[in-house]
Amino acid sequence: MESNLLLVTQSGSVDALYSLIEEDPCILQKVDDLPFIHTPLHEASSTGKMDLAMELMVLKPSFAKKLNNNGFSPLHLAVKNQQTELASELVKFDPSLVRIRGRGGMTALHIVAKKGDVDLLTELLRACPKSIRDANANGETALHVAVINKRYEELQVLTGWMQRGRQKDDGSTEKHVLNRGDRNGNTALHLAAHENDHKGVKQLLKCMSLNRNIKNKAGMTALDVLQDNGSHVNKATEKLIEISGGKTGESLSEVEKMSVFLIKPVTFREYCSTGIARYRSQTSDGTREALLVITALIITATYQSAAQDIREVSDIKGAILEYVCQWGFNTAAFLLSIVLTFILLPAGKAYTWWYIFIAGPLVCSYWTLIYVKYQPLLFYFIYTPVAMGLLIYLIVFYVRWKRSRQEKVPKTKTELISERNETMV
Q: Model pTM greater than 0.85?
């Protein structure tokens, strides 16, 4: 950076900056052309020149994403030099600055978690919530850094932020960050256990999404790492991990490698679940919504039909039509609508279990209504064809799965010889 520009930056005068630009309109562009340089914004951010820094953000926003020769952005320098107010203004102007990786892959969030400042940490998270997923060159998130540096208030802010997230991807973010391993496979819980840090372990164990039994690359769980301290192990911490479900690596079953899993033949259950998943992914949102409306109407109509009082039928023909055809087809439509609604649900265990809790009592109520209306013998007579139809469908589906697994039978030796002779002719 030119000496006159450096002097103006150190003075913090906006008027002096524009005087230089008037003399040389390309003075800021010359700085911007270099890939790594200590720009005027770097200098203003590190020294707390608020007015000049924000003016430079307007004139040259690209300065904010540039690293200096030491691998730091202006936001990094503002955080390192405790220019809290200026750092907050920078991220308000451009929230994406929080995710800029500097030296060692460190973001501003990593630096705050290391140095400590709960208010600034909260500001950065509010400005850019996804920054909590970012890891440095060692694979460490801000959660790792807070545990390593025993920043308990910052640790509480990070875990509290993740547990209170209500956006679409916040659940997966919480699981990802809490259970992410660094370069050596150590989660934040591993690191806290290694340091015999009772307070850190206790705070992490409050998180429901934390996996207590993840193994690092050495095959050790957090409990193994804690017990590796030998006679210095904190017994209270050890008991705390065990009570929360933590186990040693030896007591856990070996995790099956993905390659071993893929080599195995596809089971019937996997065949069914894969077919449902493919149908869901191929169904557009408009089609799904239309089908869900139709199934809801069918379920409502068939259930109301089952709840109506039975009619008096005098002749046998009318009884067959009433009992067998109507109630048999009514039940088939009801059950198929229940199944189709389940298939159309978005993927996820939460949707599945909620649907089971809701649809299960509904199906039981339907069957109870029918059973009360008719004598047991007539009840079984009506629904035997329905059960048989469902069984036949499952058998056909199972046969299709078996046929898809069958390998082609190799040709006999005589057939191979005859084919070779034909090609030679």
A: no
